[in-house]
Amino acid sequence: MKKTLFLTLPLALTATTPAFAHLNPAEHGSFAAGFSHPMFGADHILAMVAVGLWAVLLGGRALWMVPAAFVGTMMAGFLLAIAGAPLPFVEPTILASVVAIGLFAAMAIRVPTPLAMLMVGFFALFHGHAHGGEMGAATAASYLLGFAVATALLHAIGLALGMLLGAGRGRLIIRAAGAGTAFAGLWLAFGA
Residue 181: what are its φ and ψ, rounded to 5°? Predict the structure, then answer.
């Protein structure tokens, strides 16, 4: 039962299409607006869950260091955006992150943990910049905390799925989920 729940949760999260994806900070508060931002975008959900899946395949310290690098660098990207620093190709790079991180998991790419942190951190900078660019009237600190918590939660879902599946045949399912993520990223980029 638990395995089925954990396997269907990411699909359910990506299949939802609420009438309004981002909450109004004036109505719901800045934290809620920040928290909702990554939770209602398929590109964000797919990339962040894939970070957790790939971290499980890497194992060891990567289990916490790779997701932490994503969250930390994403916050830096947010600060760049609210400071007015331009970053080119934000949306295309976010879509590329879905494909790339999905492929990292699909191919079970083995790299040292610091390099994996750098790889996901590159993409996280763009995710964070997008959050900053779409902050609207929200209070920066609360909004940042909201999307950082949501991102960590999505990473935790990927980690939990990966750990639940475990070794052996489970690694093949994790890799298949990575491949599915990469294909979904291509569909978002070219088919949507």
Answer: -65, -45
Pair 14, 41: CB distance under 8 Å: no
Could you tell me if 165 and 122 are in contact, meaning their C-beta atoms sit under 8 angstroms apart? no
Convert the pLDDT of each residue in 36-55 to its tens digit: 888 888 999 999 999 999 99
The model's pTM: 0.85
Q: Is 108 left (phi over 0), alpha (psi -120 to 50) or beta?
A: left
Q: Is the dihedral of CA 120, 162, 12, 176 positive or negative?
A: positive
b/e per residue 8-28 (b: at least 16 CB within 10 A): eebeebbeeeeeeebbebeee
156-173 burial, b if ≥16 CB within 10 A, otherwise e? ebbbbbbbbbeeeebeeb
The pair of three-digit structure tokens given for residue 158, joined into one six-digit string? 């990927």
* Beta carbons of 22 and 40 less than 8 angstroms apart: yes
* Non-local CB neighbours of 180 within 8 Å, separated by 6+ positions: 102
Using DSSP's 3-state secondary structure scheme, residue 85 falls into coil
Structure tokens at 174: 């994790």
